[in-house]
């Protein structure tokens, strides 16, 4: 957690949680640059100066929102997957959790904050972009490492390019988000699940036999 | 073309072209909602009222920018691909053109306008979203139809799900854009090309033999 939280009492933490929950909704619709102190104050029913008691500046608030969104992703996608057995079961659990997360995120008015923030920030150097970039690199490394475990466990064939595999998973995640949110395509779920299945199938040790069945 | 262009003389069309070229650059960085008449006027060295002689209102300007970006995509990705022979060669040409387009778009300060507009507009009902949504559906239908031709020509196996195939292509496009622009990953190109190759390979009529080689 940010060092800025060190002096929080539990009461101000709760208030902060409420503020961040409102901020997440605003960012979900208007983007990270569209988060204004004025609109946020209105949505939580506080004065602007009341808000500033919790966040020193707008960029600190923006960073906290991105940290919160990232932490939520870790809590609902990555951490529960680590309870599944190492190897393919864990990877499958990860993609299933990710799918649920994308649908849950869709219940936020504007969809995935992290995907939107990537598009918004990719050309804006600074601490917000650095944070999102690092968070996504960590995430992709986690997928690569989980893939390597599937090789080590003998589920996937040796020599599989684990980074290529992680890239494919991430591409399908982006595809699902796009087809569901932008195109409102009723087949988005089928496409996502089928592509993930084929990806796992091609990575399996016995894939030559499987594909000639 | 828009009916608003009907009364254009060639001179005002040229001015309009210059305005739209500047507008594209602004949108590429600040998004479609970040396009202000004031900033655009400054960047083309015109007065606001001079701009309004060409565009009746901001939303008309935004729509023209999206139309221009879409037309550019059609001109550099789709149209040249239709010169390649029907079937797999045309599909491969399409993905290669798309790759070049993404790199060219990256030379715009903020990357692909159409991808950014999708994320920005997905939760904002209205004529801009409708336009982008329809343009993307048309695009994906074109890819599906080109895939169907590859089946008809005997290049791809019968029974291949052409919509699933088109979805995979689109997912890899999104993946490439993301890994290159947001993550600045030097392996993005290799990932993209390898995934496209594997996708074509799996779709080929003789893929069972190919995979057991």
The beta-strand count of chain A equals: 0
CATH class of chain A: Mainly Alpha
State Rg of chain A.
Answer: 20 Å
Q: How would you characterize the largest beta sheet of chain A?
A: none
Write out the CATH superfamily name of chain A: Tetracycline Repressor, domain 2
User: Any idea what the shape of chain A is?
Assistant: elongated
CATH topology of chain A: Tetracycline Repressor, domain 2
Largest interface (CB within 8 Å) is between: A-B, 47 and 48 residues
Q: What's the end-to-end separation of chain A, in Å?
A: 51 Å
How many separate structural domains of chain A?
1
Q: Strand-and-helix sequence of chain A, N→C?
A: HHHHHHHHHH
Rounded mean pLDDT of chain A is 86
Catalogue the unreliable spans of chain A: 1-8, 209-213
| Oligomeric description of these chains | homodimer
Helix content of chain A: over 70%
Number of helices of chain A: 10
Broad structural category of chain A: mainly alpha
CATH hierarchy: architecture of chain A: Orthogonal Bundle
Approximately how much beta-strand content do the residues of chain A carry? under 5%
